[in-house]
From TrEMBL, chains A, B:
It comes from Paraburkholderia caledonica. Keywords: DNA-binding, Transcription, Transcription regulation. Coiled coil: none annotated. SUPFAM superfamilies: cAMP-binding domain-like (SSF51206), Winged helix' DNA-binding domain (SSF46785). This is CRP/FNR family transcriptional regulator. Residues 194-267 form the HTH crp-type domain. The keyword Ligase does not apply. SMART domains: cNMP (SM00100), HTH_CRP (SM00419). Residues 1-27, 36-46 have a biased composition (Low complexity). Residues 60-130 form the Cyclic nucleotide-binding domain.
Amino acid sequence: MLTSTAAQSALAADSAASPGPAVSSPPQQRSRRATPRAAGRTGTRSAARCSSCAMRQLCMPQGLAPDELSKLETLICSARSVHRGDTLYRSGDSFDNIYAVRSGSMKTVMAHRDGREQVTGLRLAGEALGLDGISDDRHACSALALEDSTVCIVPYTALKSLCREIGSMQERLHKLLGEQIVREAAQMMVLGSLSADERVAAFLLDVSERNAQRGYSWAEFNLRMTREDMGSYLGMTLETVSRTLSRFQKRGLIDTQGKHIRIVDLDGLRQV
Amino acid sequence: MLTSTAAQSALAADSAASPGPAVSSPPQQRSRRATPRAAGRTGTRSAARCSSCAMRQLCMPQGLAPDELSKLETLICSARSVHRGDTLYRSGDSFDNIYAVRSGSMKTVMAHRDGREQVTGLRLAGEALGLDGISDDRHACSALALEDSTVCIVPYTALKSLCREIGSMQERLHKLLGEQIVREAAQMMVLGSLSADERVAAFLLDVSERNAQRGYSWAEFNLRMTREDMGSYLGMTLETVSRTLSRFQKRGLIDTQGKHIRIVDLDGLRQV
DNA sequence: CGTATGTTTGAACTCCCTCAACTAGTGTGG
DNA sequence: CCACACTAGTTGAGGGAGTTCAAACATACG
């Protein structure tokens, strides 16, 4: 149920361009340090345009006509890589860009004044990021890479102009904003009303569905978050997350080893 | 800390037009049934334009030049009254309008499939409502009046056009959407990381601040929500809300009788 | 003015947290 | 290459914050 309407942002309008029926889990970097590490801790910028093949399956272009898409591409498309654990932006940073996760995954966290942190979001490839900065020109959250990732950079000011020119572009941005509003409201409901078991189940189903809608397997995936991240996102301790997953495994609902999760009994998971 | 940036939406650009230093609590309808009840359970539509005096202190016009404001006014301004307990829209209703609470207050609720409901938002006069419908042309939440209230109706399609004509209008809508995203993220943090005491304190401070920014007293207000609504919004039971308020009163932080709340020790409340 | 709805408070219970110990990976440096 | 440290995950035992159940009280709505 959780955010069932939200994940469509990851799908291309042109379904034929989807990444195909990848039955197994997404292409994980088995050897995590395989890619030569670029200089600098903050990741690198690439002047190269996002190739249209990459763009089509990302969140922004959905519903755009080809000529509009090309306008978007001239606008957007510098990319940036962010290494695992590094921040894409920090709470308080000036807001200049919206991002789309091109590969990898990220989390957003919000800090209380006393230092406590709460994970407020998980972004998989194809999902939008950075919308928390619109309201007052500073980011309200920080965004960290859960694994080595790349993002497309969309300059907000230019995007705004484009939205005034192209109706479908405006429509797309509004949907993106609206989706995040609904997703967050659904998460408030998870945090406010569900038991620990229900929260974990809802989370797994949410990730599963988002994976499926990006053309990957709904049944099997690697969650790059730690138990602590999951706990923070779900409003519980890492121990309770771990115990819950173990119990789900004993009940035959899932099969986990570490970060790799396989959903065995989808309906069972839905029923709590 | 909670959503400190959000409430500015209620302020008019022209500060001289603010409702003035109302030291006491907002003008509540003491005799609640004083206004003759119009026919029909769903409230009435009024063809009358929102007078500019009313509009200026509402959320939409902030940051608009006079001529742009008048364009907005020709667009918007049918109003509707919603009686206490009645719904302005329901989850699943087709999304046609955005609303601005003109008087009174409303709550938004989201339902789980099994029937459990979660209060996902509280809207005071001057705040925007209905943004949960943008993402898929159906409302994801329901909106109910906490007291007899009136709202301005802003047709979304027309608003979109206007946003393409007028940059400041686009800006305003984006801010509105961005503010809700940040507000909800902050509430996720409340639900996920704070203790019961902290949640109640954060809530009172949030309402206090929003009241203040609308020109009313930060120290004293009527919360039209029930303890159950508060509990739902804060992820706890009505009994715990009640106990917490009682304890705050014993500690000299607040003074409550029923729905009327007076903040005695603002700093104390901030320190938990 | 009476009844339904909302609020307060108490007492027992329980779900989840806290603290702790142990295991298994992963990266580092000798 | 192994030993080491370090981070991440699992599992257990005990305790506590908040829930549940219940009953009395207050408020306000029709």
